[in-house]
Design a protein that fits this description.
The protein is mostly helical. It is built from four helices and four strands; from the N terminus they run ββααββαα.
Length: 116
Amino acid sequence: MSNIIKSSSNKRILKPKNSSGFISELSKNKDKYLLIAPFFILFTIFTIIPVVISIPISFTEFNMIRMPKFVGWENFARIFVDDDVFLIAVKNTIIFAFLTGPISYFACLFFAWLIN
């Protein structure tokens, strides 16, 4: 146990084995990181970047022809107050989530019990 040091208060402290541990772990598992790299690249391009970009765009009036004009919270206020379809969609989403969630969990539990 060469990586345990005793401090002045007689507590045992675990010191790092070497300062380049993270880099050595990366180089040791390079093949595994190369195998998952395509997923992370595609996930970043098609999921993370569009979600991050949609946040500032949601605060603008944007129609792809003219430059975006900042309108602040006006879009969100209009959706909640003036749009009847949005509220119906929210209601349907909540009903769908509360029905399919428990039913699918119990079905999975039942089939796992049946297989076992």
